[in-house]
Amino acid sequence: MSKLGQAKRIIFLKTADGQLFEVDEPVAMEFEIVKSFFDENEDAADDTVVPLPNVSAEPLAGIIEFCKAHVEFRANGAAGKDEVKKFNAEYIKEKSNEQLKELILAANYLNIKEMLDFLTETIANRLKNKSVEYVRAFFGIENDFTPQEEEAVRKEYEWAFEGVDED
Amino acid sequence: MGAWLKLNEDLLIQIIKQLTLYEDLSAFGLVCTSWLSVAVMEQLRFISKLTPWLILSPEKPTTYRQGFYSFLKNMTHQVMLLEAEGKCFSSRGWILTLSKPWHMVLLHPFSRRQIKLLNMTTKKCFESNRGHPIRFIKTYPNLPILHGESEEEDVLPILHANNNTSGDIDNDIDLENDMNG
């Protein structure tokens, strides 16, 4: 961990697909997994590379962008303000469902609470008023109910499936 | 993508918490068996936070078919409620059913969960309310009543109509005690 007065420390992260990222310490410390890595290895050398075997470069770049902005918001006392909401809305607007999935899996692995809260909310918003088929396709999950089981559960909730969007 | 199956339960619960419609929870539960178990586990907490529905007056007085109107979706759902005999009241998305001799049961119209409450004649709140609940029921047979909100998970406020006004019964019913008792 850097001490006061010390030059800005850079943390090195290596993704599953072999890319090396140089991240400002306050941003990297948003990742609980990186933070605990350094907490457990207090005497780790400054050029220690933290391996992230479950994260590839694309989602990591997106996550760094998000965390960097939020660290700055907090430093500027803008947390919770409209500025943040605007950034979040812009950030997620261009993301496909596929990218969103990559992001949440990576953020879950890295254990970034603020971003997870935001991503689960976004996913919930995209699932609202959708059919079961849509939700399955969204998550790419195979239906493992037997036809009889599914029929029974569907019957119980029959009313709930009126008027949902099929796409 | 197989990774979603490995999504930890916490993450699924976080997503469920952000949903607002009971219908969405149902769709979530029908995805696969493991998600159904998470949805069922979260059901009780979920329904206590739902946006209120309007209970519509039955078309015929003898029918068990009850209409529920959703503000969020602007549509009416018809549900067969064999469990709810006679008149019912509503609180936080639950239907409070009354049957002789004053047994109160909380019934959730969509999940069909039931919670038995204390016998209402033992509750001070009804005594202090002057007059009998039966009169209240007869006086306001078709009044739709919405649920109230409580900050505390285990306390259930009941909104009721009384002398043409709505108000809270002074003593909240402690759900936890009633469930244990």
Can you summarize this structure?
In chain A, 54% of the residues lie in helices and 9% in strands. Chain A has 167 residues and is mainly α. Chain A has a 3-stranded mixed sheet.
List the helices and strands and how they pair.
The complex is a heterodimer of chains A (167) and B (181).
Chain A: E1 10-15, E2 20-24, H1 25-28, H2 32-40, E3 49-52, H3 57-75, H4 82-93, H5 97-110, H6 113-127, H7 132-139, H8 147-156
Parallel strand pairs in A: 1-3
Antiparallel strand pairs in A: 1-2
Helix pairs in contact in A: 3-4, 3-5, 5-6
Chain B: H1 9-18, H2 22-29, H3 33-47, E1 53-55, E2 65-70, E3 75-80, E4 88-91, E5 94-99, E6 103-107, E7 114-116, H4 124-128, H5 133-139, E8 155-156, E9 159-162, E10 165-168, E11 173-174, H6 175-180
Antiparallel strand pairs in B: 1-2, 2-3, 4-5, 5-6, 6-7, 8-11, 9-10
Helix pairs in contact in B: 1-3, 2-3
> For the CA atoms, what is the radius of gyration of chain A?
20 Å
What is the helix tally of chain B? Answer: 6
By CATH, the superfamily of the largest domain in chain A comes out as: Potassium Channel Kv1.1, Chain A
The amount of helix of chain B comes to 25-40%
The count of β-strands of chain B is 11
Q: Enumerate the spans of chain A where pLDDT stays under 50 for 5 or more consecutive residues.
A: none
Helix content of chain A: 40-55%
Q: What's the structural domain tally of chain A?
A: 2
N- to C-terminal separation of chain A? 48 Å
